[in-house]
Amino acid sequence: MAVMRTTVAAVTLMASAAAQQTPAPAKKSALDKAAMEAYVRHLFVYGPQIKVEVEDPKPSPLAGFQEVVVRASAGQASEVRQFYVSGDGLKILQATVWDINASPFERDLKLLKTDLSPSFGTPGAPVVIVVFSDFQCQYCRQEGKMLREQLLKAYPTQVRVYFKDMPLQQIHPWAMTAAIAGRCVFRQKAVAFWDYHDYIFEQQPNINEGNLKAKIGEFAGSKGLDQVRLTSCIEAKLTAPEVEKSMAEARTLGVNSTPTLYINGRKIAFSIAWENLKQIIDFELNYQKSAQNAGEQCCTVKLASPLDPK
Description:
about 300 residues, alpha+beta, Glutaredoxin, 5-stranded antiparallel beta sheet, globular
């Protein structure tokens, strides 16, 4: 029996020694791009057909955390997710961070660029609306008509609207060409863009890939535009970079559907009824008035346009 006890003790000691010699598995870090990609793919069920890009870590508004942006895409569809990773790479947060001393929409306001964008309304108005739209989208058609018919009637000097292209090519086959044509009209005669906007949306149910260019020609003739110059611009896709720049901006903002509005930076990612939009505009006007009376500076919105007076 003594021999048996000695043997068991020896085996126990040997197992303990072997365990001490076996290194513990290395901990993964979310600051490692490959590890972060694998984790996010598992978390959101991103299969191999989806391209996942993990950006380099950068400073974040959260002390002790770094910001890591992950972009997932498949064809024309994409989405952007923002994460905060602890300094040791072990913890991941997905959260919205606000600064009590700044506008809650400051991040998106910094990303919105309205230079060379068609616009209407009063320059320097207290409420600025940026519209991401698609000429083949039926909801954009309804909302576009509402904006054009109601906004200036209700707010003749208090609102400024900017139009941004976001053609959803994967489901709308002629939307990209319509967007390029709209930019060609804008390039030739800026004030004619809104006539084009109204015309294309009005004709939307009657337009298809085969007759789009003929419809655009009819519009150009009725407005006295140089049809040869316009046709050349459309055929050569001279304004495609402008449309693509607008689309890239939409992706950066995380816009993935149309219509999407930004009202002084507040994102409305769905078609909104006039009564609800009016309520938001009235709230913004009252908020800015009270903020100014209190001496606050966080709520001013300044977005440039080529149509603004110098």
